[in-house]
Structure formats: structure tokens, C-alpha cells
Design goal:
This protein is mostly beta strands. 8% of the residues lie in helices and 36% in strands.
């Protein structure tokens, strides 16, 4: 399955096919594509060309402007994986675990060392100002060739900063995967007779 991203200034219809902007290869649970330059088309279309043996399901598509942080995080960058699950303990002491997702939710923890209060304000405004804490989701794309490290998630609600020396700050940033919508299996409920 391929994913094509089409764009147009006058809409789509007969005689107006638009421009093929990117062809993406989907990966689970999320994937991304970076375009070479900002584009300002009014109309966008996501297309799955070809014949498919099963219906295609798309949870959420995000189209936005990418930003590069003014400074890279310090190493180590920590990746954590956790399967969302429900644990049930019986009175006899048996444990039953139900996994809620086929994919582990990922969390990335990073630490930035900033050399001035100005750098701190710039990082805070650019990262936390755009995401407004955990109100707006973000797509974290580290400068890495591994597409599995891309995370569509939310920042931790608070920004932890430490003044470690005169005008030197450390900032701890955490992004947790939060794919939307979170839906369970579809269940058909017949109308009352």
C-alpha cells in the first residue's frame, strides 16, 4: 500500500487533478513525510492508489509546518516502550492481562543544556508555546534514519527547568505517543424491534 499526497489551489474534480506532492510508505502505528519546502495549497487529498484486499483505515492525518529546535538535546535520549493493558487479579491470586493495542506506546525523554535565559525562553516559546503543554499534539521527528523513532504524541504537561550554574539551564522534555482517535473494535448494535 502506498499513500499519495495531492494538492491543488482550485480544488479537485473533472479536469482538476492537482499536483502529486509526495508518495509515502505507511508504517504502523504511525508514519510521516517531510516535504522539501513549505507549501501553501488550499486543497489537499490523501489517496491510496491501486487495488486493496481489505478496507484501509486511517486514524488521523496531520499536515503542518515543521520546525527545527534551536539546539539539539544532550545524549542520552531515552526511549521507553509500554503496551497499554488492563490487569485483572482473581480472588484466587491468578492474573489475567488484556493488551489494549497491537503496538507499544512510545515515550521519548530528552534533556537540553542551555547557556542563557534567552535560549531558555526561545525553547520554551517554540516548543511549549506551539504545543500549549499537552493541548496540541506534535510530531517528533529526530534527525535519524530510523522511521520507527517518529512519535505522534503530546508533551508532558509541565516543563521542568533547572538553573545549574550562573545563566546555565537544563530543560527536561518528554513526549509521549498519543495516537488519535483511540477506538475499540466496531460493534454493531441492532435497533430495538
Amino acid at each position: 500500500v502506498l499513500v499519495e499526497l495531492w494538492a491543488s489551489d482550485i480544488g479537485f474534480g473533472e479536469g482538476h487533478e492537482g499536483v502529486l506532492v509526495a508518495t509515502l510508505t505507511p508504517r504502523q502505528p504511525s508514519f510521516y513525510g517531510l516535504l522539501p519546502a513549505p507549501l501553501t495549497y488550499r486543497w489537499w487529498r490523501i489517496q491510496f492508489p491501486g487495488w486493496h484486499a481489505a478496507p484501509i483505515q486511517l486514524g488521523e492525518a496531520v499536515l503542518g509546518l515543521s520546525q527545527v529546535l534551536p539546539q539539539s538535546p544532550r545524549y542520552p535520549v531515552t526511549y521507553r516502550f509500554r503496551y497499554p493493558q488492563i490487569d485483572n487479579d482473581t480472588p484466587a491470586g491468578e492474573k489475567y492481562v488484556t493488551t489494549l493495542s497491537r503496538h507499544a506506546l512510545r515515550t521519548v525523554s530528552m534533556e537540553f543544556r542551555l547557556r542563557s535565559a534567552n535560549d531558555l525562553r526561545q525553547l520554551r516559546d517554540q516548543l511549549y508555546g506551539a504545543a500549549r503543554g499537552e493541548a496540541n499534539p506534535i510530531v517528533l521527528v529526530p534527525l535519524d534514519d530510523d522511521p520507527d523513532v517518529v512519535i505522534y504524541g503530546r508533551l508532558a504537561p509541565d516543563l521542568a527547568t533547572d538553573l545549574v550554574f550562573l545563566d546555565q539551564w537544563t530543560v527536561k522534555v518528554e513526549v509521549s505517543e498519543s495516537p488519535l482517535p483511540r477506538m475499540g473494535p466496531s460493534v454493531y448494535v441492532p435497533p430495538p424491534a
